[in-house]
Amino acid sequence: MKKIIFVSVILVALSVIFLFTACGPSGYADAFDGGYSPVYSADGMKTELEEFLAVGGGDRTCLVSENAPEDGSGEYAAAEWIAGELETLTGQKGKIVSFERDVYTDSFESQNVVFSLKAPAENNPEGYKVVIGAHYDNMYDTCESGDGRAVYFRGTRAAGAMGNGAAVAALLNMCDIFADNTDGLSTDVDFVFYGMGCIDYGGADEYWSGLGERGRDSVILAVTLERLGGSDLWMWFDEQSTAHGDFILGTAAGIGCGDHISLPPARQTDPDVILTDSLPYTPYPLMNETSVYFGKTNVCSVTSGSDFTFLLTDNDGYGREDISYTSRDTLERLERDMPDYADQMRVAAETLTASVFGAGFTGACLKGLEQIGAYDWLTSRLAAYIAGAVLAAGVLAFTLITVSRLRKKYAGEGGRPNIKVAVFGMDYEDPEDGDVYVDIRSGKPNGPEDPFGDDPFGTDGGDKDGKA
User: Fold this and answer.
1) How far apart are CA 156 and CA 187, in angstroms?
2) What residue spans carry the region label Disordered (predicted)?
3) Contacts of 70 (CB under 8 A, 6+ apart)
């Protein structure tokens, strides 16, 4: 029995140590050694957001096949505007890539807008690529199934300043800067404005599938911007510390943005939600396009929030109403509740830009790719079974110790009494048969004294039998 107890205790201790060391963040590397000057302004972010939200009266709802996109409304109008705005900012028009996607019984028409930049061949001989994206559609209008018998989502009638206008505006500003500085790139960059983000992250999935095997192998990092403008700015990379994550967070510290960015709290998960085939739980930052890339390449999810668990409250950690993807998701409400929202957009863009142009960026991403899969078993159902087995071993060890102490404590001259468990309470047991019963309902034994009292195991100066 002592061997069983010893092994059980060791297993529990090793499990706790491993979880805290394998999944905890390491120290941030000093990835950026200076020399970077800020290139974005909060005013520029705000102006871009205002112009984008005005497109089509704010309606960027995904269209079902019956509502042909040729009418120039909704999501397609927003895609056309983004493509034209890219040409205005950079001289290069974004490419509209149309696709159809089946969701349940309906076929949806949508489109991504892709803005591709090439690094000089001498800087990127291997043809590596970084993807930086955000979905541009919203839930302005109600999206019904073709037969009218189901509703995919209810319309908010709000333009979606947080969901996801702020991210789109930040991305457009980044396209402007990157296009003027391609000579400094060490990897190719695809800026992707995803369609159908509000339905199954369809645009991101279509983009990733459309790259082909060779194109997917070239991607060393996929960045997703989502829900900017909340009380805290988070960057999430994985449940474990990653090389590219350390590099980006180190860069943020190096350019003076470190105080404005952090890893999300570990409790930001919802164990009851399954959004990807490989994950029995879903971290909050994976509830966006990042989930499409997770486990396939390095990821960086840039989002905002507070100290609350997703979908369990309507208020953030400061008592303000959560506005993203609700009827309150307007620019006016964002300005009132989060007056520094534009500066948060600037910080996100500044950090990502300095990281991609920073020396050592490609190397950090390649090292991060080597780490993918190192802890895959932690996100599998096998891990849950192992955790359950370890917990059971701990319970078994506790039970064996308790039974052993009870036997010693109640042993009499005529031999040791039997220790029995009164599962349904003492009303169904015979307390006069000389045995000792543990009443499950009360948690106390039926004996001359309570072994779970101040000193149940006789450790307070007594002998092995618990006698003074």
Assistant:
1) 39
2) 434-468
3) 76
